[in-house]
Design brief:
By secondary structure, this protein is mostly beta strands. It folds into two domains: about 120 residues, Immunoglobulins (Immunoglobulin-like, Sandwich); about 130 residues, Galactose-binding domain-like (Jelly Rolls), CATH 2.60.120.260. Helix content is about 5%, strand content about 45%. Strands 10, 11, 12, 13, 14, 15 and 16 form a seven-stranded antiparallel β-sheet that branches. Strands 1, 4, 5, 7, 8 and 9 form a six-stranded mixed β-sheet that branches. A hairpin with a 6-residue loop joins strand 4 and strand 5. The chain starts with a helix and ends with a strand. The relative contact order is 0.15.
């Protein structure tokens, strides 16, 4: 029943963001009327292709951010309701163009189906999008597009499947505005990825997720192949980007295990693997 209720709230939220009215109260309320208060929004981590909208809410909410270069917006980024998490929300806006001014507006729905909406805000993306340092040439063979798939995971946030909002498929979808979050696994977080064939791997990339208050980060991890060899641990300096590590092994499946974390809902924004098909 609760899942159906949250689905209905999410549909209501999309309706309102697109100009509809609520069926419950008949009006959209300003953020200042939210019980427990509201702080923000703040625009963080602006790059040439993405930005993070951060805010705090006094009650659990479903949120979406309508954004675009004009007041008709045109794009939506959605954050589902996270039970008990009533502060320090963050919504990533992806697919942006460099050196461009964007407009955005928040629409929030609480557990009572009350709808709140912000005024129109703006921000400008960075002039030049800097690629991640030391990214190797070639295809990321762990991506869903290349035939990679998740065959095991410690957990997904809320107990969901791999294709849910914070499911493990987000770690290999090639999209920096999505992420995999575990269900509070902390140091015990792990994910196993199967490639479409056996590769001679020469580089892996790992981008740890984090919360706005710099918690739930993975500080180091290991990689174990289907042949049973473990490599690492490898240190992650921070959660600001993907970091690459040179390798030399042959494998079709790779299991990534956290060694040290900041506990909580640890996970990954992106995991990448580079190599050449193995020849017998």
């Amino acid at each position: 029943m609760k899942g159906k209720q949250l689905t209905a709230l999410a549909l209501l939220l999309v309706l309102v963001a697109c100009g509809g009215q609520t069926a419950t109260s008949g009006r959209i309320m300003p953020l200042e009327e939210m019980p427990g208060g509201f702080e923000g929004p703040n625009v963080l981590e602006i790059t040439g292709s993405s930005a993070v909208i951060q805010f705090t809410s006094g009650v659990p909410i479903v949120c979406n951010v309508a954004f675009g270069t004009g007041t008709n917006y045109g794009s939506l980024a959605t954050m589902p309701m996270m039970a008990g998490a009533i502060r320090d929300h963050a919504v990533t806006l992806g697919g942006l163009a460099p050196n461009t001014t964007y407009r955005y507006r928040l629409t929030l729905t609480d557990e009572q189906a009350r709808v709140y909406q912000s005024q129109d805000f703006t921000f400008t993306t960075s002039a030049v999008e800097q690629p991640p340092a030391d990214r190797p040439e070639g295809e990321n063979v762990a991506s869903l597009a290349a035939g990679g798939r998740v065959i095991g995971v410690s957990s997904n946030f809320g107990g969901g499947d791999n294709d849910t909002a914070f499911g493990a498929n987000n770690a290999i979808d090639g999209q920096p505005n999505t992420e995999w979050s575990s269900n509070g696994d902390g140091d015990d977080v792990w994910i196993e990825i199967e490639l479409d064939q056996t590769y001679d791997v020469h580089t892996i990339g790992f981008w740890t997720r984090t919360m706005p208050n710099d918690t739930a980060q993975i500080f180091s991890f290991t990689v174990t192949t289907d042949e049973g060899t473990t490599h690492g641990p490898f240190d992650l300096p921070d959660a600001s980007q993907i970091y690459y590590f040179p390798m030399q092994f042959t494998a079709r499946t790779l299991r990534f295990d956290a060694v040290e974390t900041d506990t909580g809902n640890t996970g990954a924004v992106e995991i990448e693997v580079f190599g050449a098909p193995h020849e017998e």
